[in-house]
Write a structure and sequence with these properties.
Length: 584
């Protein structure tokens, strides 16, 4: 089984002649688009719309391919200076079309009968939702060269600060038991079966952050101030308002979800206290025991065993997805193991030019890594479901981005629990699932609260590392309640989580995806195979509808708190079963 992904089908390297040709073609197309956007006055509407969209489609495909390749290379080897150089060249071209793009959007939105024209043309009609979104977002576009200026400034601003955080966290040396390792490897030890290993690894992790906390604090402060300035210039009420608008999501939906989460937090605290007592702690669970395994399920998987398990399971569930998972393993879509210079965590990126995806993980062989692979392969299946959309119709919003991935987690965990050989294995699996759900409820809520605090203070205050640590521990206290030992929290979660260093509030979508997917999985359990066409149709709809209209494909009203309660009640029932198994 391959250990690293194969990027050669995209390009054979930065010196590949195809890379140079595509880069020159992108520059040429950008120049054509800028010239076109500068002569829109008096242009016949239908011809102008078709020409502008055709140029944007071409730019999207070229820039997407070039930028993705550079980004994937950088994630796998953050120390490679070529990656940053090439990304800088690519972003320079992309930023140069920001102003022409804004001019084209404003011209299109100024047409009195825009949607009439769109509906009357077969090709443009497929972009109706895109044009509707343009009409809604037109008010937030900056005039003149404003968009280009902001885009160019971001290259040496937000993007650069984000790259610094990734570089520092992927290269910081971690001293663990007399040896030097990396952050991803030592964080993986949180799942080890030996409590002494978990504690020592946690202390080693916490100690390493002292080396990088100050520059990462500067990165976070700078990114958030840039976001605040951008929102003010554009007329957004707040960074959260911008996130919701860009996510095609109503505030009522977010409030309904968070309100239901508040109601059910005590159930999660009960789970954490029960686990703490089972492990011998009376003051709540220390942070380093959040992922402590329970029961008897210590099997380690090779990548081949992971492949066989997932292909067999998903082929029986959904043959189309099972076939895709087999291709992902067999055709080197996945970069598996942690190593120095490789980014931490896991992600999936769609490679539109190939109709494939690429997945980065930090595989350690535990069952949780099987679940992580299933999660990322869910993203890959989502990418496949939208592959027949037109080029500008392949971006789905952050909240629905976690739907297919979390649905896959439900499939894996339900199957594993059903197949459990005895109570000890069942306990291990249920507890493993509760670990994951606690992450997307308690931990994600703490991240949301932390980011809210940061935005509330940043305009008037530079927040040093100690201040940020204080915000983090307070956010954790509110979200984990008395389930977490107040003397052993994780004040540096803001350092290692990359989500703070990109789009604003890239945290609540995980809670959304987790609960939305569980609601969908409950429907699948009721309807069986008849649900699958509806599920695929829902995924296919995600780039061309609001979050609320996407949910309506499955008959769901996301502004109704009862929907979120029904998903959370499924977890609350599992918590009761877990507590009963522990007591037994």
């Amino acid at each position: 089984m391959n250990e690293v992904w194969n990027l050669e089908p995209i390009y054979r390297g930065f010196d590949d002649p195809a890379f140079a040709r595509d880069f020159e073609e992108m520059k040429k197309t950008a120049e054509e688009f800028a010239a076109f956007a500068g002569k829109l006055e008096g242009t016949e509407p239908l011809a102008g719309l078709k020409n502008g969209i055709a140029l944007q489609e071409k730019l999207s495909e070229l820039a997407g391919k070039l930028g993705l390749y550079a980004s994937l290379r950088q994630s796998a080897t953050t120390t490679d200076p070529q990656c940053g150089s090439q990304m800088g060249r690519i972003y320079a071209v992309i930023s140069g079309i920001a102003a022409p793009g804004a001019a084209f959007t404003k011209w299109a939105c100024g047409l009195d009968n825009l949607l009439e024209i769109v509906d009357g043309d077969g090709d443009l009609k497929e972009y109706r939702y895109l044009f509707t979104r343009w009409q809604q977002e037109n008010r937030y576009l900056l005039p003149g060269l404003g968009e280009e200026i902001m885009a160019r400034m971001e290259m040496s601003g937000g993007n650069a600060w984000s790259e610094l955080q990734q570089y520092l966290t992927s290269t910081v040396p971690v001293s663990y038991r007399g040896q030097t390792t990396n952050l991803s490897a030592v964080r993986n030890l949180a799942y080890d079966s030996d409590p002494a290993v978990r504690k020592d690894a946690f202390e080693a992790e916490i100690a390493c952050y002292d080396r990088i906390k100050d520059p990462v604090a500067y990165a976070l402060n700078s990114i958030k101030l840039e976001t605040i300035s951008d929102c003010k210039l554009r007329g957004y009420e707040s960074p959260l308002d911008r996130t919701l608008i860009q996510s095609s999501m109503k505030k009522e939906t977010l409030e309904a979800m968070l309100g239901a989460m508040d109601e059910y937090l005590p159930a999660f605290w009960k789970y954490l206290r029960t686990k703490a007592r089972a492990l011998g702690y009376e003051n709540g669970l220390p942070w380093y025991e959040l992922f402590a395994p329970m029961g008897k399920s210590g099997k380690k998987y090779t990548t081949q065993e992971a492949r066989d398990y997932l292909v067999s399971l998903f082929t029986a569930f959904n043959p189309e997805e099972g076939e895709m998972i087999a291709r992902a393993f067999d055709n080197a879509w996945i970069d598996f193991y942690p190593r120095e210079g490789k980014a931490g965590g896991a992600f999936c990126a769609g490679v539109e030019c190939l109709g494939e995806s690429r997945i980065l993980t930090n595989f350690d062989g535990a069952f949780g890594d099987i679940v992580t692979l299933a999660h990322e392969l869910g993203h890959a299946y989502h990418n496949q479901c939208i592959g027949d959309h037109k080029p500008l119709n392949r971006d789905y919003s952050m909240p629905v981005a976690e739907t297919a991935s979390t649905f896959n987690e439900c499939v894996v965990m339900a199957a594993a629990i059903r197949a459990a050989a005895d109570k000890e294995e069942k306990l291990a699996l249920i507890e493993n699932q509760l670990q994951d759900v606690t992450q997307i409820i308690c931990d994600i809520y703490s991240r949301y609260r932390f980011e809210t605090m940061v935005f509330a203070h940043r305009e008037e205050q530079f927040m040093d590392a100690d201040t940020l640590c204080g915000f983090m521990t307070e956010a954790q206290r509110q979200s984990y309640g008395d389930g977490l030992d107040p003397d052993c929290q994780h004040p540096y979660m803001w350092v290692c989580k990359s989500h703070y260093y990109g789009p604003t509030f890239y945290n609540f979508p995980y809670a959304f995806g987790g609960l939305f997917a569980r609601g969908l999985y409950a429907q699948y359990e009721k309807e069986g195979d008849a649900f699958l066409p509806k599920y695929r149709r829902l995924l296919h709809t995600t780039p061309v509808a609001t979050v609320e209209d996407t949910a309506k494909v499955a008959g769901i009203d996301l502004t109704d708190r009862d929907f979120w309660r029904s998903a959370l009640q499924m977890v609350a029932d599992e918590i009761e079963e877990f507590c009963a198994l522990v007591e037994a």
